């Protein structure tokens, strides 16, 4: 039986996407073998079958590509715009944004002086790696960083009173020596769509106030 492979939305046979045919189809990593200079890899169980897939992010012109290679050698990929060149923040992160056991992939789309911008992808059978969007279908981005006068971050948590499991924080210092003003927004993650579930606006709170706290590491799979 010939297995089908989804490449950029088109189906191809494994022979057309065999490892090593071109730089856009990374060969499976072997223990002790470093990834190419313009790529970074991690393992994740994105299809929930109990076995890991090889996840790779690599450069392709002014875009980056996130891909997954499965145990049967089938392969999917999805390209996304990025203004971060080279290996800076190239490594993909494995996350469980919905705290439901589904593993999503978090990738860097932009870097600023003190802030990193991220996007998330989820695996959908028959479609491949699909970018997580808002309820209007626009690509959803989130951030981590800040500086002396601002703070942005995100966190994951078990469902609250509703079904929200993902939270973002944005805060700005109103003046030297003053507290932070900002908003904390809660979201539910429904497959490839993120849905707002409420927000808390805060004013002049100290840096260690609970409403300001967010830990991206909390989004790691359990």
Automatic annotation (TrEMBL):
This is VCBS repeat-containing protein. Residues 14-51 are annotated as: Disordered. InterPro entries: Integrin_alpha_N. It comes from the Bacteria. Keywords: Signal. The keyword Signal applies. Residues 26-38 have a biased composition (Low complexity). It comes from Prauserella isguenensis. Residues 1-18 form the signal peptide.
């Amino acid at each position: 039986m010939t297995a089908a492979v989804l490449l950029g939305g088109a189906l191809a046979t494994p022979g057309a996407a065999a490892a090593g045919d071109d730089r856009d189809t990374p060969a499976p990593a072997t223990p002790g073998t470093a990834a190419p200079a313009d790529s970074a890899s991690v393992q994740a169980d994105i299809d929930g079958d109990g076995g890991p897939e090889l996840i790779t992010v690599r450069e392709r012109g002014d875009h980056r590509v996130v891909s997954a290679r499965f145990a049967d050698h089938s392969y999917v990929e999805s390209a996304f715009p990025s203004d971060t060149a080279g290996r800076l923040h190239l490594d993909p992160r494995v996350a469980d944004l919905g705290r439901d056991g589904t593993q999503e992939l978090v990738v860097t789309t932009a870097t600023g002086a003190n802030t990193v911008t991220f996007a998330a992808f989820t695996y959908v059978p028959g479609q491949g790696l699909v970018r997580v969007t808002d309820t209007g279908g626009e690509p959803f981005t989130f951030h981590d960083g800040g500086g002396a006068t601002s703070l942005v971050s995100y966190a994951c948590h078990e469902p609250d009173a509703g079904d929200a499991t993902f939270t973002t924080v944005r805060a700005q210092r109103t003046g030297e020596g003053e507290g932070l003003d900002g908003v904390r927004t809660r979201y539910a993650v429904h497959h490839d769509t993120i849905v707002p579930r409420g927000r808390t606006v805060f004013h002049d709170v100290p840096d260690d106030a609970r409403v300001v706290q967010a830990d991206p590491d909390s989004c790691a799979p359990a």
